[in-house]
Write a structure and sequence with these properties.
By secondary structure, the chain is α+β, with helices and mostly antiparallel strands. It folds into three domains: 85 residues, Rossmann fold, CATH 3.40.50; 61 residues, Dna Ligase, domain 1; 196 residues, D-amino Acid Aminotransferase, Chain A, domain 1. The chain is 30% helix and 26% strand. It has twelve helices and 17 strands. The strands form three sheets. Strands 9, 10, 11, 12, 13, 14, 15, 16 and 17 form a nine-stranded antiparallel β-sheet that branches. A four-stranded parallel β-sheet has the order 3-2-1-4, sandwiched between helices. The protein has a four-stranded antiparallel β-sheet with strand order 5-8-6-7, covered by helices on one side. The longest helix has 16 residues. The protein is globular and about 75 Å long. The termini are far apart. Bound molecules: adenosine-5'-triphosphate and magnesium ion. The site of magnesium ion has 3 residues, from β14.
Length: 385
Amino acid sequence: MNVSEPLTLGVMGGGQLGRMFVHAAQSMGYFTAVLDPDANSPAGLVSHYHIQTAYTDPEGLKQLAACSVAITIEFENVPAPALRELAKHRPVSPGAEAVAIAQDRMAEKAHFAKCGVACAPYASIESADQLEAASLQNLLPGILKTARMGYDGKGQVRVKDAHALRQAWQDLKQVPCVLEKMLPLALECSVIVARGQDGQMVNFPVQRNLHREGILAVTEVYEGHLPAALQRQAIASARAIADGVNYVGVLCVEFFVLQDGSMVVNEMAPRPHNSGHYTLDACDQSQFDLQVRTLAGLPLTQPRQHSAAIMLNLLGDVWFDDQSKMRTPDWAAVLALPGTHLHLYGKTQARKARKMGHLNVTGASISEVRQVALKAAAILGIEAF
Ligand code: ATP
Ligand code: MG
């Protein structure tokens, strides 16, 4: 008997998240199609089909829709008209509405409020009058963030007073922004949920995240890493945020825990997330497996973490020594340590602050895992945590 032709799953964007989605889809027997303008995109390099056009190119979108049974995204700034066009022909998840919310910090904060989840005190700044009013609202010191297109701390300026705020808005070319009060953080965490077409939802454990210079550096997940009440609150909030927009797909919600123990939501990502990469090696299903299931309309079962885990992000910095000279990191020394799992994204150019890969460390106990992770960090020149 002949097995029928494999179905193709499509993805808008060819970065590392798309690459890991492609790997998961292929391991379940699907073909994949990636639309990305870059000939060397990490996902395009490993996909069955790579449609190499601009995200809004009508011909490219037509090709993607023609070959795919369903289409997802791997970065949130996919132009909304492109998603709407695709959605005329094929199921697209997450839907354009959820993606539009995540693309705009003002819409995002309004959505959080609608779902009953508190965020940091903030003001919208779209005019000089709003700028002056905001400087009187007890939001300083604060962080001025562009409403759209920010990631990895880009498009953000920390401002201590009204003068700095005015200067920062000038520097950001007076585009629409939000001014957020700088909060006294005790720690940061995130939750990843997957929600199916029927509204059924599952979640991963809460991740504890360390950021350096606005970029995720380390994620830790193990028994007892966060108070149980905080974990319950984070999971309930993430689920409410997903339900509130009838979300379909994998969603990550980031939170701040303040020094007084209270928690506020930071932002959401309508896709798998860097803080969920530990699921590749520490859980019985990864966040990318669940992305495949939600896209293909397959059942969801609650994932189980089987190992304590620490993930180290491998930024381009690791490819430079103390004298800023290029080097190849000593992977053999890292891989000689037990429980290390190296993931590299196939990027040919290392630049400082560029996400090049990540290292998952897993083990039976967190003390073991931490010891190994600290050794690996020392070998790679990553600051201890
Ligand atoms: P991402 O890559 O997660 O999309 P981003 O560029 O959207 O990042 P944010 O998540 O808004 O940036 O902020 C990056 C980091 O800056 C946060 O993880 C946190 O460490 C710090 N930060 C942001 N907003 C605040 C705040 N209001 N108070 C204190 N620290 C903050
Ligand atoms: Mg963030």
